[in-house]
Structure formats: C-alpha cells, structure tokens
Design goal:
Elements: H1 2-13, H2 44-54, H3 61-72, E1 79-80, E2 96-97, E3 102-103, H4 112-115, H5 118-128
Antiparallel strand pairs: 1-2, 2-3
Length: 168
C-alpha cells in the first residue's frame, strides 16, 4: 500500500509540464445577482445585494447600506482607527476593517483579513447589529457634536441616496 502511494506521488511530481493538472470541477460563472467580490469599491446597489444575501431583512437593507457607506464609502478594503492605507490585507496600523469598519478590539471574534472581504464583513455586521435591529455600536449611527448621524446622508431623502433599486 505504501509502495502504491509512493508511486502515485512520483507520477504526480514527474508529470511533464505540458500535462494539465486536474483541479476539480469548473467553477460556476457568476450569477447576475452575485456581488462582485473582486471590486474594491462597491456601489449602493452592490451593497443592497450583499445585505440581502447575508440575511438583513428587507426593511433593514437601506440602513445597513447607509451605515456601510458612511463607514467605508463602499470600500471593502477600508482600514481605519487610525486610518491606514487601504488594501486587500491588514496594514498593521488599523483596528477597524472592511465595509462596516468592524473594530477588532471590540470584536476579536472576527479576523481582520476576512473582514476585508465583502461577504464576511456583511455577515459580521449582520451578527453585531443583531440583524440590523441595533446599530448603536457604529459611530456613524450616532449624533456627534450636535451633528446628525452620518449614515442619514445615505438613507432615503438624504443627499447621497441613490434612489434605490428595483430589487430592494
């Protein structure tokens, strides 16, 4: 048995370079409703799709999108507290990561590298906000210095609201 396994390993290691390696089934092409994970900056429409995909109820989608826009401007690689360079890996300076700027000092259960991925960040925001029912942990959801909460600018009626989409 050991001999057979060793021979299989030798055959794999000595395969001519021109022979294609089998890597499993071909991945499915993206569906029209999928969030483009390779995009660094997501639009409000992209964020609506993501919010629905991770489980936010329909009546909380606009609020989840508004918080993400106020926190990161839709940049899934955003890193802050203190603000550091944006990129697909943690920059070593920041404590808050991703679309919803999850602060790992307060939420060590989430991985910084993973928070820079839209779907993981969305699931983290869903869990932390209790499905969109409680946004008190996000500073953009608070009135600070007599100014209205920043997220309101991206809510319906706010100056940055894009009008929504037919699927919201």
């Amino acid at each position: 048995m050991l001999f057979v396994a060793a021979m299989a390993a030798v055959a794999i290691l000595t395969r001519p370079k021109s022979a294609p390696a089998k890597v499993g089934p071909t991945p499915r092409p993206p569906s029209p409703g999928d969030v483009p994970m390779i995009k660094q900056v997501l639009s409000m429409a992209d964020l609506r799709i993501l919010a629905r995909q991770v489980g936010f109820p329909a009546e909380k989608v606009d609020e989840a999108v508004a918080v993400a826009m106020a926190e990161s401007g839709g940049d899934q690689w955003a890193q802050g507290d203190p603000k550091g360079p944006s990129g697909p890996v943690p920059n070593g300076l920041s404590k808050s990561f991703g679309l919803w700027q999850v602060h790992i000092g307060f939420h060590p259960e989430f991985q910084p590298t993973e928070l820079l991925k839209a779907d993981y960040a969305g699931r983290a925001a869903f869990l932390i906000s209790r499905g969109g029912a409680d946004w008190h942990l996000w500073s953009t959801h608070m009135a600070i210095g007599g100014k209205p909460p920043a997220f309101l600018a991206w809510m319906p009626g706010g100056p940055h609201y894009d009008g929504g989409d037919a699927a919201s």
